[in-house]
Fold:
Amino acid sequence: MVKRPKMENMERLKQKKILITGGAGFIGSNLANELASQNNKVIVVDDLSSGKKDNLTLRNGSGQANITFYKADVRSKKIAEIFKKEKPQIVYHLAARPLVQDAYKNPYEVIEVNVMGTVNVLEACRKQKGIESIVVVSSDKAYGKAKELPYKENHPLQGDHPYDVSKSAADLIAKTYFTTYGLPIKITRFSNVYGPGDANFSRIIPDIIEAVIKNKELQIRSDGKMIREYTYIKDIVSGCIKLSSHNANFGEAFNFGSENILNVLDVIKKSESALGKKINYKVLNITKNEIPAQYLDWSKAKDILGWKPETSIEKGIQETHDWFKNYFINEKK
Ligand SMILES: NC(=O)c1ccc[n+]([C@@H]2O[C@H](COP(=O)([O-])OP(=O)(O)OC[C@H]3O[C@@H](n4cnc5c(N)ncnc54)[C@H](O)[C@@H]3O)[C@@H](O)[C@H]2O)c1
Structure:
C-alpha cells in the first residue's frame, strides 16, 4: 500500500454510515480513507475495473476496520441488495468510466455505466428510507463547449462527445431524482483533479511525473494549448465533505475548481519549477474534438459552503511526485 499525505484542517463528518460507489478509484479512495479516519462507517462499492482494493487503508486511527468493501457493478441488481443490507445515511456516487479516450473507443459501455449505473444507484436510494444526503459526482465536461467562460452552474449541460454527454445526461438524471422524487441530491462538477492515488497515465500530471521519475520523453497528445483548471485531490475531498454536511440547497449543482487555469505547456513549466527538473517533451498533436478551454466559476461553493481550494499547484505536484516515487517502487516488487 502506498501512503498518502495527511489531509490537515479537513471538514469532519462523524459516526455516519457512508456508502461510496467507485470508492476504490482515485477520488473515491481518497474520500473513503478520509471519512473512515473521521470515525465514520464507510462502505465501498466498486467493480475494480480500474480501482484497487489496495487504495483503501481499511483501518481507522484506532486500528479498527472501518471500510467494508463490496465488489459489484453499479449496473447490477446487487446494488439494491447492498443498500438494503447496509442502510447508508450518506451516499457518494463516483463510480464511472472517467476517461475521454476510453469513451471514444467504447461508447456503449461507457454511456451505459455512467448513465444507467447512475439510474440504478439512484433507484436503490429511492427505495431506501433514511438517506440524509446523496452527492452525485459530475464534471466540468458535462457543460460541453462554452461561448463564455468560466462556466457557472446555470450554464446549459450540452456535452457533444461520448464521455461529455454521459456526464451531461447523468447530471440531469440526478436532478430529476430530486425534482420528481424529492431525494436529497446534490451534484458536484469538478475541474481536472490531480494528486496522490491517480495512476491514470492518460492524464497530464501522472504522465509528466512518470516521465520525470523514469527519465523518459513526455509525449503530448494534444497541441499543448488546451486550457484546463487543475484542482488538488485534498481540496476536492474537503468540498465533497462540506457538501454533504451542508443541510440545504438540495437539487443543486456546485462547481469545484481552483486558481490553476493552465495550458499543458504551462503545467510542464509549473512541474519543472516544483520538481527542479527539466522535462523533455514532444507535442504530437493527434487528439481530436478536445474542448479548447474549460474552467469553472466556483464562487457558489465559496459563498454557500465556505469552501475554497487551499493547495498551490507547486505543493500539489510535489506531493503527487512523492506518492509516485513509492508507487513505482511498489510496482517493481
Ligand atoms: N479525475 C478527474 O479529473 C475528474 C474530474 C471531474 C469528474 N470526475 C468524476 O469523478 C469520478 C471518479 O473519477 P476518478 O478520477 O476517481 O476515476 P477512477 O477511474 O480512478 O475511479 C472510478 C472508479 O469507479 C469504478 N467503476 C468503474 N465502472 C464501474 C462499474 N460499472 N461498477 C462499479 N464500479 C465501477 C472503477 O473501478 C474505479 O474504482 C467519476 O465519476 C468521474 O467522472 C473525475
Observations:
- The first strand starts at residue 17 and ends at 21.
- Residues 17-194+231-258+292-309 form a domain with the Rossmann fold fold (CATH 3.40.50.720).
- The mean pLDDT is 94.
- The chain is about 40% helix and 15% strand.
